[in-house]
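ARCHIVE CARD
CATEGORY: sequence design from structure
SOURCE FIELD: tokenized fold
FIELD CONTENT:
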């Protein structure tokens, strides 16, 4: 890359200070050197250096120069011709041809004595480089199997890790958005982009900190992003064309699965469609085994589900100034659950137990439509409009049988909901970029209507036969204006004002079969919450250090109208709202941050409603209209450091918070043994958490190794009420998670994880039983592609909980690619070979211990056919990927 001013252009000079065969037995050597500015003679930090084999362009080693401009490339094969790429933002990319030889163990050269051919090749690019704040990979430098997807490409990039759930991290930072040529793809959906786009379409993969355009232009100093965005740059000959894939599969136990992806890309417009249906999970399967400490949990995990979904994505341009992104998503789900519960209710002076079985069928249907229209009048002015619409309905039928106490219940409900929202933002920057104005207005309307039919018999004498109509409507408005600018030297200032207003109406009418309208179980509430925060910031920022001091006042106003009770509860609160943050940069690959913030949480409508909810015969709930808005004070400290010269990085985060007016449960039991729960405000709750992750990325000969160790420790001090007695609980937890990824010559790959945790909870009430347990989890994934066209994979999962038991699940699959271009794949798989998959959990709280088991999908076999197709620039044959 050439600077606009040719007088300032930089030519890299590598001073080879040593070239030795430090590992003759393994046939490898190393290159050490230094990167200088030819004009000034200054050393350059964070220049990217990579070595590739000239015969097949295989990436052999890579690194960055340190603060002294020095670097070391190790593990290079002897007696092979190499190309060493050097890149630094703002300067020409340079490639040097050399041959590492064990005959020159003490070879030392000066700058004038380098007897190598230095070449500027415009058609050749380094495998990766840093361009300002963006890490850029040359996708064509990484070999892929035919018809591999983007996720297969990402797995090969140095520093990129994809876990079992599809979560992506790059050098220790989580990727929360994926774009294609700078545009959102399916609203930034990671799985849609990585699973549907072919890897051979990609020219470059760019990684940068996640920031909106408004945040990039604003002069308000904010903490560095802990997340990254991945931008996929398409090849020029792949920007226009039609491509996609289709798959269909069937198996034992009435399992089926199918999906289709169709994409039409043009120079100015892109249209993508996907659809899927099935009752077999897309993942390789695995046991779900949870042990948690917290409040009551009445929902289970697992069950058998049947899902259908479809989506449509449009990216287009109107002229040169308007870009339009639109998304539509449809989903339908039907799940069937069979749940067994064994629950012990703990009282200050006694305890009692009940065992229940529940059958439930849930059906849901959802439509989601969203769009983003951006008008850029010039490079300093931008107007954005983002409307959205959601429509949905749900149906549920359940039956419950409880042995002790004797309870029989049937519930049927149906609900409809719609939500409309819109956001309008305006951003303006002066031509000298010293002042920025940002204005945002966001509104939302949510309408929900539910009908519930409940019938239950409690201990053969108390009968409930009722019908409930519920209608809730919420309207919200959020407005913010921010004016920021540079005031003197490295100092900047900002003035901000935010307004957040929520109006909620909740009408609940419950009719008894015998008595008609039941006023105790009914209510008509109107809640209004208004929060205003004027604030100011003064900040200092240079190349290394940034400090921002924010001061504001939070004005909170609540009005809860109970129309049926003819009463009004008004609450007004005012609080000083400081926000302090400091960040120190450790170069392009690290930073240290400290901060203190204050936030508020408004009670939900159900928590404020005075009406009693007895839809669950064993769990009666009622709200508290006098609840106040909760306020949380939070402190945090973090450090992130990546040493590319060694391929080692670490990320450490410590945070703590304490709450005022926190909303907590107030639990007691009535004379029939039913749990009754309401809410109270308390102060004194706190949390402390510490997280540390160390990761390493290495390439040694034909091996690629990536490993990470994640450790967490924490303490929660919670407050609740049991039988009107205050109970304080302390929960301690320690967890260690290790993941290791190994691959050899792109033919064999192994992914290993080990997860171990220890948990303990103590209670202040003397008769409550403390809870201690430990958990273990291990997974092994193996993939073999040593034989052309053949792929074999295996996945072993083991879960253990000392409070319950262990579960082992083994899955395996074999696939073969047919066709001249290997576009047809036939895959046979078996899920849960041992037929032992189990969904079982334990939930503990201050007033109960509950074991729960939900039906799980066990062993089944599947046969799947998948076909890939494309047509780019008039070429109708399936693409051939780089092998």
């Amino acid at each position: 890359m050439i600077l606009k001013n040719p007088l300032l252009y930089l030519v890299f000079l590598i001073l080879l200070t040593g070239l030795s065969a430090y590992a003759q037995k393994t046939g490898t050597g190393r290159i050490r050197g230094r990167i200088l500015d030819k004009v000034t003679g200054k050393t350059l930090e964070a220049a990217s250096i990579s070595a590739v084999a000239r015969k097949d362009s295989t990436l052999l080693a890579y690194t960055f120069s340190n603060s002294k401009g020095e670097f070391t490339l190790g593990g290079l094969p002897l007696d092979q011709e190499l190309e060493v790429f050097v890149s630094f933002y703002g300067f020409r990319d340079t490639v040097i041809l050399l041959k590492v030889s064990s005959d020159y163990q003490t070879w030392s050269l000066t700058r004038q004595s380098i007897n190598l051919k230095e070449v500027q090749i415009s058609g050749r690019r380094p495998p990766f480089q840093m361009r300002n704040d963006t890490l850029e990979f040359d996708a064509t430098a990484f070999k892929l199997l035919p018809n591999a997807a983007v996720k297969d490409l990402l797995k090969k990039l140095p520093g990129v890790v994809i876990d079992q759930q599809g979560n992506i991290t790059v050098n220790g930072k989580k990727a929360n958005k994926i774009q294609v040529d700078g545009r959102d793809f399916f609203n930034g959906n990671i799985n849609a982009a990585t699973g549907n786009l072919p890897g051979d379409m990609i020219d470059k993969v760019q990684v940068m900190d996640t920031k909106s355009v408004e945040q990039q232009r604003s002069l308000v100093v904010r903490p560095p992003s802990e997340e990254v965005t991945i931008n996929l740059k398409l090849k020029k000959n792949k920007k226009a064309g039609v491509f996609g894939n289709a798959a269909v599969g069937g198996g034992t136990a009435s399992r089926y699965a199918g999906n289709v992806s169709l994409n039409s890309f043009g120079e100015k417009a892109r249209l993508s469609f996907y659809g899927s249906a099935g009752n077999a999970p897309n993942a390789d399967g695995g046991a779900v085994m949870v042990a948690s400490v917290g409040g009551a949990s009445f929902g289970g995990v697992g069950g058998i589900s049947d899902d259908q979904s479809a989506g449509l994505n449009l990216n287009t341009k109107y002229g040169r100034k308007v870009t339009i992104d639109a998304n539509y998503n449809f989903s339908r789900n039907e799940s069937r659950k069979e749940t067994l519960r064994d629950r012990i209710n703990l009282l200050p002076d006694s305890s009692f137990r009940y065992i229940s079985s529940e059958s439930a069928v849930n059906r849901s249907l959802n439509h989601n439509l969203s769009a983003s229209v951006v008008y850029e009048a010039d490079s300093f002015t931008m107007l954005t409009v983002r409307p959205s619409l959601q429509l949905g309905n749900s149906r549920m039928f359940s039956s419950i049988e409880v042995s002790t106490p004797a309870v029989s219940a049937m519930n049927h409900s149906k609900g409809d909901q719609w939500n409309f929202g819109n956001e309008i933002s305006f951003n303006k920057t002066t031509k000298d970029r010293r002042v920025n104005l940002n204005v945002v207005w966001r509104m939302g309307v949510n309408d929900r209507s539910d009908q519930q039919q409940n019938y239950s018999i409690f201990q053969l004498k108390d009968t409930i036969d009722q019908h409930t109509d519920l209608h809730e409507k919420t309207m919200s408005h959020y407005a913010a204006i921010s004016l920021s600018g540079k005031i003197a030297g490295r100092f900047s200032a900002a003035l901000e004002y935010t307004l957040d207003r929520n109006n909620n109406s909740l009408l609940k009418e419950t009719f008894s079969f015998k008595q008609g309208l039941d006023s105790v179980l009914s209510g008509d509430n109107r809640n209004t919450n208004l929060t205003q925060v004027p604030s100011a910031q003064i900040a200092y920022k240079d190349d290394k250090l940034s400090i921002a001091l924010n001061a504001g006042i939070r004005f909170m106003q609540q009005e809860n109208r109970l129309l049926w009770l003819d009463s009004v509860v008004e609450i007004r609160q005012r609080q000083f709202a400081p926000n302090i943050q400091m960040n120190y940069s450790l170069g392009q690959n690290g930073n240290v941050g400290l901060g203190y913030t204050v936030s508020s949480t408004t009670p939900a409508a159900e928590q404020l409603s005075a009406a009693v909810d007895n839809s669950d015969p064993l769990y009666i709930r009622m709200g508290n209209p006098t609840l106040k808005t909760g306020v949380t004070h939070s402190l945090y400290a973090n450090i992130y450091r990546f040493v590319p010269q060694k391929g080692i990085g670490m990320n450490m985060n410590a945070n703590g918070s304490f709450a005022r007016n926190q909303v907590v449960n107030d639990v007691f039991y009535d004379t029939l043994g039913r749990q009754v729960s309401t809410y109270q405000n308390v102060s004194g709750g706190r949390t402390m958490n510490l997280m540390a992750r160390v990761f390493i990325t290495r390439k040694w000969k034909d091996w690629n190794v990536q490993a990470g160790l994640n450790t967490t420790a924490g303490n929660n001090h919670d407050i609740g009420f049991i039988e009107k007695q205050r109970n304080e609980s302390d929960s301690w937890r320690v967890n260690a998670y290790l993941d290791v990824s190994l691959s050899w010559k792109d033919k064999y790959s192994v992914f290993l994880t080990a997860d171990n945790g220890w948990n303990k909870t103590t209670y202040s009430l003397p008769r409550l039983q403390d809870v201690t347990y430990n958990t273990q989890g291990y997974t092994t994934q193996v993939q073999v592609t040593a034989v052309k066209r053949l792929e074999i994979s295996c996945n072993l999962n083991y879960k253990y909980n000392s409070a319950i038991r262990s579960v082992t699940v083994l899955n395996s699959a074999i696939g073969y690619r047919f066709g001249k271009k290997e576009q047809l794949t036939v895959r046979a798989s078996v899920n849960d070979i041992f037929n032992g998959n189990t969904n079982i959990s334990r939930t503990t709280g201050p007033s109960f211990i509950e074991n729960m088991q939900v039906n799980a999908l066990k062993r089944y076999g599947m046969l799947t056919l998948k076909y890939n197709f494309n047509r780019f620039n008039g070429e109708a044959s399936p693409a051939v990927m780089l092998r």
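CARD ANNOTATION: Residues 1-26, 102-123, 283-301, 876-883 have pLDDT under 50 and may be disordered. The chain has four helices and 52 strands.
SHELF: design records, drawer C
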